[in-house]
Amino acid sequence: MKSTIRTVSAALLASVCATAAFAEPTVALMEGVFPAQGDNPVVEAGTFESECGWTIGMSAFGVNANTWTVQVASESEAEAERHECIDKFILLDANLNQNKQVADIEDLIAQGVDAIIVQPVTSTSANASMEKAVDAGIPVVLHTGRVETDAYTTEIQGGAEHFGKVMGDWLVENVGNDGRIWVLRGLAGHPEDTNRYHGLQQALEGTNVEIVAEEYGDWQYDRGKSVCETLYLNNPDVDGIWSSGADMTRACVDVFKQFGAEIPPISGEGNNGFFGQWIADGFQSISSEYGPNQGAAGVRAAVALLEGEELYKHYVYHPEGWGLEKAKQYYRDDLSANVWWPSELPEETLQRIYGN
To answer: Domain Periplasmic binding protein, which positions (predicted)?
Structure first.
């Protein structure tokens, strides 16, 4: 039996309808993802409908940028395998290179793919090539990074400002109005980093919280550890840490433990290794949700368009932060530190890739 997005659970579909009662269509792309409020055009039913036998292409900004991006690729490929109508799924890695992303998307257009999924390297790196795809009649699905053009068919955006503000609001509550904080940013120039930082700035408005150090850790453990070691050696007097990604959070926690120091309040993310640290050491934290299953949602959006479904142009992903008890529900000691939650990977795949 053909697998389609209609197989999403009835509970999830009911949740979509209840949370956005105004919304038609009611395609369920991913738990926690809803149509954006305000001006939100609809892609009319049948616009991109195509017979089975599709080729779907994906331009990733950097598959090996960190452990999260590796899993996004796995989630995307696993979702593509669930759909019998997808004959071929082409995943191209821009490797954080803007010129490579342009070439990748133009290559997919030349191959005559039926849909293209884009994770932009920067807010402008994919604009011109996405416009060429749209002009060629190819639907374009955008996620995990905003662009400075409307030349795409539908987008699923993780609400980077929301992500950063959830962590920022929590940190202000825990360090007080006059707290001193470090800021660990992600990849310089990437729209997700820029917008998460904007969310932090929103949280700090009207407070006297002082950013005493701000560095880029590239969303990587090794780079994050080097940054945190330097910050600690230069000035360990810090009340809290805003970290844009869990690999950097894990690294900073390890640095404080390495120096035998008390771990200050520090923001985290839905990463299995971080959850294990949090549970074991009991420091103060919050986990902003940014699931790698956005990769699966992107494939589902492409499938919906090719099946002739209606979709909104703009979808948002604004989940609440997770506390320690929810982290305990997801943590798996039989899997490695490199798994990210929530995930839609089959158990067999989780064990094969991440099993201890």
So the answer is: 64-310
